[in-house]
Amino acid sequence: MASVQTRPYRRVLTSALHRRFVHASALSLLVSYIIAIAIGEKSSFFWLWFPFGSCGVRTALLFISSLTIFVLRVSQMHIGSRTANSSFGTLKSFTLLQIAQTFGWYIFSAWWFTVIYVWSSSSDSNLELVKRARPHERPTLNERPIYLHSFHAFLACVQAVFHLYYDYDRIAVPIAERSSKADDERTHPVPPTSKYLQGVLLPELTAGALRSVTVAAASLVIYPIIFRTFAWSWSLYVAKLFWSFPRSAAEPHSFVPSIFPYFFFKTLGPGVMLVLSWQTANLFYSVFIGKEPLKRGQPLTTEAKDPNGSLLSGLKAKKEIVKIFALWELSLISQRVPDRRKAIFNEIDREGGSAWSQVLACTTDVIKAINTRIEESKNPAPVTKPLPQAGKSEPVVQTLPRLSEPIKDGNIFTAAPKATSRQDKFGDAFSSAAKSIGQSEDWTPTARARVRDVFDRASSAMLSPEQKQKYLGSPQKFKLLTGGPSTTHKPEDMNPVLAHVLRSPVGQPFRQTYAQRLSATVLGTPESSLSLIVDAVESLTRLLIASLAEDPYGKVQADVPSAVRLLTQTTLTLDAFAHQGGLDVHWTDINFPPSTDPQAQAAARLVPDVEIVLAALRGGLKDLLMAFRPYLRDIGITGKDLRLAKEAAGIGGEEVL
After folding, report:
1. Using CB atoms within 10 A of its CB, is residue 86 exposed (0-12), middle (13-18) or buried (19+)?
2. What membrane topology does the UniProt entry give (predicted)?
3. Which residues contact 656 (CB under 8 A, 6 or more apart)?
4. Helix and strand tally (H, E) in the chain?
5. How many structural domains are present in the chain?
6. Are the CB atoms for 57 and 40 separated by under 8 Å?
7. Which residues are CB-contacts of 563 (< 8 A; sequence separation ≥ 6)?
8. Most confidently modeled of 328-337, 402-411, 630-639?
9. Which of 2, 68, 311, 357 could form a disulfide linkage to 353, CB 3.0–4.6 angstroms apart?
C-alpha cells in the first residue's frame, strides 16, 4: 500500500490565512466605497453612490491605499509581543528593512490617496498643480495640492511611528489565565468577530480622527519650516516638464502660505478619511488573522489526507508563526476533539516514532526552553576569543639564557619550600615583589587625590555639602563612579543626579525594569513565546489525562513520571527565579521599591505574563496529579518526586496520596 503524502502544515495554514485575508479585504473595500462616496462630486445623487460607475472606479483605486497596509502587515506579521531588557533594546531589535518598509508603504499609501482625492475633486476645489493664467500671462504653481501632499506625507510618517511604537504588526491573541472556576476552558478566548468589531471600531475611529486633527494643527508650523521648500522645488521640477515658469517661481513669495487658514480646514476631511482607512485596515487584518485555527468548527488539518502528519510538521516548523498556530490547534484538539486525540494515541508506526512520542517531544522542548533561558541568564556564556590562524607561523626569537625561573603561578597563600640554591633565592625575592604589587590597593594615593579633586569640583554644582562629604568619604562610591567591577549596587543607592536623569524622558529608554528583564528571560527574545508555552503545557497535560480513557495500548502512562518531573522542576525554578530573588534588580530600575518595603517589592515582582505561565504550569501539574491519583505509586511517582510535585502544584496535606 502506497504511503499517503503528507501536506505540510504551512500550506494548510496559508490556505486558511488566504480566506481570512479575503474577508478582511472585503471590509476594507466597504470602507473605501464609503470614502469614495464622500469625496465624489455631488452633482448627481445617483452617480454619487452607484457602484458601476465613477464611484466604483474610485472605490477600486482607493482600495489600493488600504491594500498596501495589508502588504506591510503580511511581511512583518508576528504573534508574540516584543521583549527586551529595555525600551532601547526593543528599538535595537528593529531592522533597517522593517523601518524602511513601514515608512515607505505608509508614504506610498498617502501619496496614492492624495492623487485619487485630487482626481475625484471638482474643478471648484482648485486642486490643480498649476494655475493656468490668461494667454498673455505665464502659469504659476498652486500651493493647495502641494500643501495637501505634504500634509498627508507628514501624516504617513506619524502613522508609521505609531505603527512601530504600538507594534501594529502583532496579531494579538488573547490568553486567559488558567482558573478552575472559569466556565470557558479555552486557552485563547477569542470573541466573535462581529461582537468584537462593535466594541472596538468606534474607539479606533475616534483615535484616528483625533490623531489626524492633531497632526493637521502641527502642520501649520511644521509645513512652512520643514516641508514647504522641498515640496515646492520638487513640484516645480515636475511642473516644468509640461509648462514654462519664470525665475520668480523658484521660491514661494512669502513665508506664511496664502492658503492659510481657509484651506487648512478643507484638508481636515481628507486627512481624517486617510487615517480611518489605515486604522480600519489594521483592525480588520488583526481581527480576522487572529481567529482560531478552525475551519467550519473543526481543526484545520481535519480534511488533510494525513491529519496527524500535517500537524506534526507544523509542531516541528522553524517559522515561529506556523509553530504557534500548530500548537494552538493541538491545544484545541486536546480540549474538545476526542477523535483526533484517539488518532494520536493509536498511531504507533509512524516514521520518526509514534505520533504521541513526537507530540511529547515537541511540547516538552518548549517547556524545557524556560529552564534553559533561566540557566543561561544565571551563568552567561563566556566570550570566546577567536583562535589564531594556524597557517601563520610566528618568527623564532633568539633570547639570552635565563637568569631565573619563571614566576610561579600556584596558590600564593600556601607556604612555599625554602630556597637552597642562589638561583632559587633570587626567584623567591622576585616572586615576593610581584605578589606585593598584585595585592596592593586598587587606588594609589596619587590617583585617589586626583579623583578627589576632580569629584570635588564636579559635585559642587550638583550635590549638597552633606551629599558631597558622604561620597568623598566612601571608596566604594569612587569605584562606582570609575566603572568598577562591583555589581551589587541597588537603585536606592544611586547618585541622585543620575537617578534624576533616568527618571526623565531622556533616560526612560535606558531603564532596565524588572518586568522587562524577567519577561525577556522567561519568554525569550526578541518576541514573546507566551502563547507557545501556555499551549504546550495545556496540550501535554490534557493529552496525558485523556490517555486514561482513550489510550488503547497503555503506552502513554509511561511518560507521566517524566512529564510530572519536568512540570515540577520548571514551576519551582521559575517561581524561585521570579519571586525569591533569583533575578536581581538592575541598578537602572529606579522605580523598583526599596528593600525597606518587602511587600511592595513582592508586588513588583508579579509580572502578568510570567504569572500566566506559572498559573498554567501549576494548574496543569495539579490536574495531572489529581487525574492519576489512584496510580501514582504504580507509575513511580512517590517520595521526593511526589512531595516536590505537591509543593509546586500548591497542594497541601493529604489531598494527593
Report:
1. buried
2. Multi-pass membrane protein
3. 625, 626, 629, 632, 642, 646
4. 25, 4
5. 3
6. no
7. 360, 364, 540, 541, 544, 624
8. 328-337
9. 357
**Cα 597 from Cα 599, distance rounded (Å):** 6
Binned at pLDDT 50, 70 and 90, residue 110 comes out as very high
Contact of 471 with 455, CB cutoff 8 Å:
yes
- Give the span between the Cα atoms of 135 and 142, in whole angstroms: 18
Residue pair 649/620 in contact by the 8 Å Cβ criterion: no
Q: Are residues 250 and 321 in the same domain?
A: no
Distance CA 305, CA 7 (A): 8
d(CA 532, CA 327): 7
Domain contains 419: no
**Angstrom distance (rounded) from CA 290 to CA 287:** 5
Instruction: With respect to residue 496, please indicate whether it lies within any of the assigned structural domains.
Output: no
Whether residues 466 and 534 share a domain: the answer is no
Residue 242: predicted pLDDT: 82
Q: Give the end of a domain, one of 289, 317, 344.
A: 289
Residue 417 belongs to some domain of the structure: no
At residue 51, the pLDDT reads 87
Backbone dihedral region of 339: left (phi > 0), alpha (psi from -120 to 50 degrees) or beta? alpha
Q: Does residue 263 share a domain with residue 160?
A: yes
| DSSP collapsed to 3 states, 345-377 | HHCCCCCCCCHHHHHHHHHHHHHHHHHHHHHHH
Asked if 278 and 311 sit in the same domain, the reply is no
Task: Classify burial at 449, counting beta carbons within 10 Å of its beta carbon; exposed 0-12, middle 13-18, buried 19 or more.
Answer: exposed
The pLDDT of residue 617 is 97
Same domain, 318 and 244: no
Q: 527 in helix, strand or coil?
A: strand
Burial class (CB in 10 A: 0-12, 13-18, 19+), 346: middle
Contact (Cβ atoms closer than 8 angstroms) between residue 569 and residue 367: no
Residue 334 has pLDDT above 80, yes or no: yes
Burial call 211-229: b when 16+ CB within 10 Å, e when fewer: bbeebbeebeeebbeebbe
On whether the CB atoms of residues 301 and 52 are closer than 8 A, the answer is: no
Note whether 640 and 518 are same-domain residues: yes
In degrees, rounded to 5, the angle at the alpha carbon of residue 211 between the alpha carbons of residues 79 and 155 is: 85
The reply to whether the predicted model has a pTM over 0.70 is: yes
First to last CA, the chain: 49
In this structure, are 121 and 255 located in the same domain?
yes
Distance CA 12, CA 559 (A): 30
Cell numbers placing 530: 507566551
624: Cα within 13 Å, side-chain hemisphere? 33
- 93 in a structural domain: yes
DSSP 622: H
Instruction: Give mean pLDDT, residues 206-213.
Output: 95
Main-chain phi, psi angles of 109, to 5 degrees: -60, -40
DSSP annotation of 591 reads T
Which pLDDT belongs to residue 480? Answer: 44
Radius of gyration of the chain (CA): 34
Q: Domain check: are 131 and 265 in the same one?
A: yes
